[in-house]
UniProtKB/TrEMBL annotation, chain B:
Record keywords, A-Z: ATP-binding, Nucleotide-binding, Transport
Gene3D superfamilies linked to this entry: P-loop containing nucleotide triphosphate hydrolases (3.40.50.300)
Pfam families linked to this entry: ABC_tran
Every ABC transporter domain range: 2-208
Signal sequence interval, chain numbering: none
InterPro entries, per the entry: AAA+_ATPase (IPR003593), ABC_transp_ATP-bind (IPR050319), ABC_transporter-like_ATP-bd (IPR003439), P-loop_NTPase (IPR027417)
Protein source organism: Herbidospora galbida
Protein name per its UniProtKB record: ATP-binding cassette domain-containing protein
Protein family according to the UniProt entry: Belongs to the ABC transporter superfamily.
GO molecular function, one term: ATP hydrolysis activity
């Protein structure tokens, strides 16, 4: 059995005074060792909430439904959503799932050196390797480990957090917007690194708003809109011609393609339209769209047959 | 013309700009590219009168800038607007989106104009505070704020780096509409070559590369 993460009908709600945020609704996907799945979508569509739900890091006002089975070789399967905090803390976070955070500079403790933070991760996770070995494997010069986070360049800080994420040898890497705010060469380097992790037999769940970064590494692309996974397709197929109108619109907005924005704006997660949430912005919508489309690889009543790529 | 000549800036002993020259002409989009750490953002701050350079001259439509930041004359200060990379760091978290967009009117004592249509934000969003909206929605408010006083020059410092493709295309289209309508000069600072080409092409503006 290959290790895999299977997410089924994952829903996350936040209760606010006077409102409920439908952050994630009925999300389904799977990621296996050796694969990279990219979860893409606009900011505020629920991507990061999904990552936090999988790692048991949601705030107290969140309620979660569905299942997320983490199947690890040599261990009984574990439903991440039902597992108690103790189990997540002792066996999952850092050991089976490593998190590459959004902003390396903000993730590191500013008053401690990179070496101290790496050593702490290794010690806590019971890894006998030294910080130097781990750093060398992540492409860092061990001599630079004695620096404080503010003395590290963006690329080096990125490598330090990558090394920390790998300290417990997890087989699943969750990368939450690892490239936001980085310049292009650094984005490229980070993507190369994530691809290498997948090629080494780990599973990578990449959460990003950057379609071009996703194109560089992903085997599969899942597009989220208003908390739902509306499109799930092999990367090649997706970039050749996405079938969901929203996915097509997102791709067409790239500067390398049409550079045209999708008209309108995303709905409020506290006040979703009935039926297909993309309906108000979609030029293909009909009366049928007031009913929720069947979930599946293309959650749409009127999928595109062929998208003409420019 | 917004013209910088021989701009030198040092932070402590570290010199980040050495005799940099740049001209932003009205009516076109000038591109500015370069790797991170090359001084693009520092130059942007000088051009927006937010940082006095250690050496060099800045002229706005022929008037040399002699006073900087809040000491600069209101007329000069409001002629150049700056849009930052991270909207969250560029707003007062206590204000609502509407108050953020309307700040320039209050600061200059001008009558408040309705900016809601300008930004494409719903009335419901305009009463929210920054922590209640996404980066894209917040950046829309920042763009509205930057354009509120009809600046002659708009400096966009990695304005869309944090945003998804659709929001990026939307905001760039908004700035292009403003440029065509008012003949303003735009400086597009980005390390994204595809975006740079796409943004500068329609007006035929030059692209400056820093190293």
């Amino acid at each position: 059995m290959t290790s895999s993460l299977t997410v089924q009908n994952l829903s996350v709600r936040f209760r606010l005074p006077g409102a409920t945020v439908h952050a994630v609704s009925d999300a389904c996907f799977e990621v296996r060792r050796g694969e990279c799945l990219a979860l893409v979508g606009e900011s505020g569509c629920g991507k990061s909430v999904m990552a936090h739900a999988l790692m048991g890091l949601l705030p107290a006002n969140a309620t979660v439904a569905g299942s997320a089975w983490l199947r690890t070789e040599g261990a009984p399967p574990l439903d991440l959503l039902a597992a108690p905090e103790k189990v997540l803390a002792r066996t999952v976070r850092g050991r089976r799932i490593g998190l590459v955070p959004q902003s390396p500079a903000a993730h590191l403790t500013p008053v401690r050196t990179a070496r101290a933070q790496l050593a702490e991760a290794l010690r806590e996770l019971g890894n006998p390797a030294s910080a130097d070995e781990l750093a060398a494997r992540a492409g860092l010069d061990p001599a630079q480990l004695d620096r404080y986070p503010h003395q590290l360049s963006g690329g080096m800080a990125q490598r330090v957090v990558n090394a920390i994420a790998l300290a417990g040898d997890p087989w699943l890497i969750v990368a939450d917007e690892p490239t936001s705010g980085l310049d292009r060469p650094l984005v490229e380097a980070t993507m190369t690194e994530l691809r290498r992790l997948a090629d080494d037999g780990r599973a990578v769940l990449l959460i990003t708003h950057d379609l071009r970064a996703a194109e560089r590494v992903a085997d599969h692309i899942a597009v989220m809109y208003a908390g739902r996974v509306v499109s799930l397709a092999p990367a090649e197929e997706f970039f050749a011609g996405p079938r969901h109108p929203y996915a097509a619109g997102l791709l067409e907005a790239l500067p390398s393609r049409g550079f045209v924005p999708i008209p309108g704006r995303p709905p409020e997660l506290t006040d979703l339209p009935s039926g297909c949430a993309f309906r108000p912005r979609c030029d293909r919508s009909t009366a049928a769209c007031s009913h929720l489309p069947e979930p599946g690889p293309v959650a749409c009543h009127h999928p595109l047959e062929h998208h003409v790529a420019r | 013309m917004l013209r910088a000549d021989g701009i030198t800036v040092a932070y402590g002993r570290q010199r980040v700009l050495r005799a940099a020259d740049l001209t932003v002409a009205p009516g076109v989009v000038t591109g500015l590219a370069g790797p991170s750490g090359c001084g693009k953002s520092t130059l942007a701050r000088v051009l927006a009168l937010l940082r006095r350079p250690d050496a060099g001259r800045l002229t706005v439509d022929g008037t040399e800038v002699r006073r900087w930041r809040h000491r600069a004359s209101r007329d000069l200060r409001t002629r150049v607007a700056l849009i930052f990379q991270q909207p969250r760091l560029a707003v007062d978290p206590r204000l609502t989106l509407r108050e953020i967009a309307e700040e320039p009117f209050h600061a200059t004592g001008r009558p408040v104009e309705d900016l809601a249509d300008e930004v494409g934000l719903t009335p419901e969003l305009l009463v929210r505070r920054p922590h209640e909206v996404s980066d894209g929605q917040l950046q829309r408010a920042c763009v509205a704020r930057a354009l509120a006083l009809r600046p002659r020059y708009v400096i966009c410092d990695e304005m869309t780096t944090m945003l998804d493709a659709s929001t990026q295309a939307h905001l760039v289209a908004r700035l292009e509409a403003y440029r065509r309508e008012t003949g303003a000069g735009v400086l597009a600072i980005t390390h994204d070559e595809e975006l740079l080409t796409r943004w500068t092409e329609p007006s035929g503006g030059p692209t400056v590369r820093m190293t």
